[in-house]
Amino acid sequence: MDKLEKDILALIAEDSRLTAKKISAMLALDEKTVAEKISSMEQSGVIVKYTAITNTDSLDEESVEALIEVKVTPQRGHGFDMIANEIASHEEVKNLYLMSGAYDLAVIVQGKSLRNVSRFVSEKISTFDTVISTATHFILKKYKVEGAVMYKSGTPDRISVQA
Prior knowledge:
By secondary structure, the chain is of the alpha+beta class. 33% of the residues lie in helices and 21% in strands. It has helices at 3-14, 20-27, 31-44, 81-88, 114-125, and strands at 64-72, 93-98, 105-111, 131-139, 144-145, 148-149.
């Protein structure tokens, strides 16, 4: 990856709404060159997806997110990839990472309720033969996501964690 691609990628990572025209102006380059670089990075898989970060506390819809620690037995010839692909195939899974340390996979899931997420863990993830154990941590509040601070006005309001 050359310096120009890195510069373009940094700008897009900061604001995915930037057009090739705006990026070319920011970098003092030809718009066609920037558009070609972006297209090339999309086709090669460097740029996978453009997305928006939403503050779910501001939405009327109820949803629950959880981080699930998963310990698995790696499979011969496949390592962690086969079980990771199986887990990733579920719609509830938003992010999935191979980790070092006390557990193997970190799975971020989203569901409509605590019960929905709990069922997903007990009926889908825990049923795989290679899964040794899971630990579920419900996300109560997000303060910063992908570098974006979720609460702009000073100190965020405290939330009640009582049932």
